[in-house]
Amino acid sequence: MAKCWLLLQFLAFLLPATSATSCHTDDLRALQGFAGNLSGGGVLLRAVWTGVSCCGWEGVSCDGTSGRVTGLRLPGRGLAGPIPRASLAGLAQLEELNLANNKLIGTIPSWIGTLQQQQPNIISGTNNKVRSGRTNVVSGNDNTVVSGNDNTVAGSNNTITTGNNNVVSGIDNNVSGSFHTVSGTLNTVSGSNNTVSGSNHVVSGSNKVVTGG
Fold it and tell me: Where do the TM regions start and end (predicted)?
């Protein structure tokens, strides 16, 4: 028995310890702040987000060299509650963010809309909310673009509340603001200087109807 114990100790000494990469302390603090006050699925998230090796946490991706968080993907996890603005702002190297189909409230930092400076964000799916940014490509259904400019939105039942120079196509979209180009059918358009084509739109304001009624 003693010989077996000594052998195990010897093997433990020879074998290197394995552990997930420890993320940067600023990112660790940011993720903890993000999950700290969430309810619903946030309770389960906090239960599995433990320790300091957050690069191994569910939904988190890191750069293998620096340990900085580069991706946060938690769609449809039943997360509910406020997003502390400072928490996401602390993820300085974040390149990908997917929090679709949750019940989160709060303001996402404006730089989230331009995570990749030379590459616009491509947002697809349903029930996404784009709060700010520009030159995003949004497709799917039931998405909301709260503000931003030069976005391309396709699908149905999308809502564009404010912004300029957006291109909207599809069915049953609600569009307000200025200088949008809208095509498709059954869209509701308000504001000014919008160009509307297609049929069966409801148009108010100083807009130009090119075709349809």
Answer: none
Angle in degrees, CA 27, 29, 35, rounded to 5: 100
CA-CA distance, 125 to 142, in Å (whole number)?
9
Sequential DSSP letters for 114-131: GSSTTS--EEEEES-EE-
Distances (CA, A) of 26 to 31, 52, 115, 143, 150: 9, 11, 18, 32, 33
Alpha-carbon distance of 3 to 82, in angstroms, equals: 57
Q: Could you tell me the pTM of the whole model?
A: 0.48
Place of tokens 């949008």: 180
Q: Is 151 helix (H, G, I), strand (E, B) or coil?
A: coil
Residues above pLDDT 90, as percent of the chain: 18
Contact in structure between 77 and 45 (CB atoms under 8 Å): yes
- Neighbouring CB atoms inside 10 A of 200's CB total 11
User: What pLDDT is stored for residue 147 in this prediction?
Assistant: 62
Cβ(190)–Cβ(179) below 8 Å:
no
Bridge-based pairing of strands 122-126 and 79-82 is: unpaired
What whole-number distance in Å separates Cα of residue 29 and Cα of residue 124?
29
Domains by residue range for the chain, with CATH: 20-108 (3.80.10.10), 112-213 (no CATH)
- pLDDT per residue over 49-88, tens digit each? 999 899 999 999 998 888 899 889 998 899 988 877 678 8
